[in-house]
Design brief:
five-stranded antiparallel beta sheet, single chain, alpha+beta, disordered C terminus, rod-shaped, three-stranded antiparallel beta sheet
């Protein structure tokens, strides 16, 4: 009888820990779960960065269109040159302002002269900038380096010589 009790006590005493196989299984399951979560998180972060960049690009393009509209609306007569330059006659009679691209592919406002040293940047790193005037509407198209094309049309003021004939 004592030997049976001793065998039972010894077996209970031996079963207190985990085997090496059980530990390896737990570690491998935790590793698989962690790697799946890491992959999902990386994909989520990539989509998040793309959305942020797209949103930022859209914001900057809309701000550029707003600045162009303010310049057109605040000044006088507007014409285009070579389908990529907006020429705006100033109300103060001191020449023209030019909205154009520079050699760095930035859209800029050049004051008083087409290549005057005083300029303001409107938008940086674009692929293409096109303008077209049709009667009293100015069509502006901006293509980004990523290939996205943004278009906007702006109403133009009626010139003084046309007001009298209408």
């Amino acid at each position: 009888m004592n030997s049976i009790r001793e065998n039972i006590k010894n077996k209970i005493y031996i079963k207190k820990g985990f085997t090496l196989i059980e530990l390896m299984l737990v570690v491998s399951i935790i590793g698989i779960i962690t790697s799946v979560q890491a992959i999902v998180m990386c994909k989520y972060m990539k989509v998040y960065r793309q959305e942020i960049n797209s949103s930022r690009e859209s914001f900057y393009i809309n701000e550029a269109f707003n600045l162009i509209y303010q310049e057109i609306n605040n000044e006088g007569y507007v014409k285009t040159e070579n389908n990529n330059v907006i020429v705006i006659r100033r109300y103060d009679g001191r020449g023209f302002n030019y909205i154009r691209t520079n050699r760095d592919s930035d859209i800029i406002i050049s004051y008083y002269s087409k290549y005057y040293s005083t300029t303001n940047n409107i938008l940086k790193n674009i692929k293409d900038f096109k303008v077209e005037k049709d009667r009293q509407v100015l069509y502006v198209s901006i293509e980004t380096r990523k290939g996205n094309v943004y278009k906007r049309c702006f109403p133009l003021k009626i010139e003084e010589d046309q007001k009298g004939s209408s």
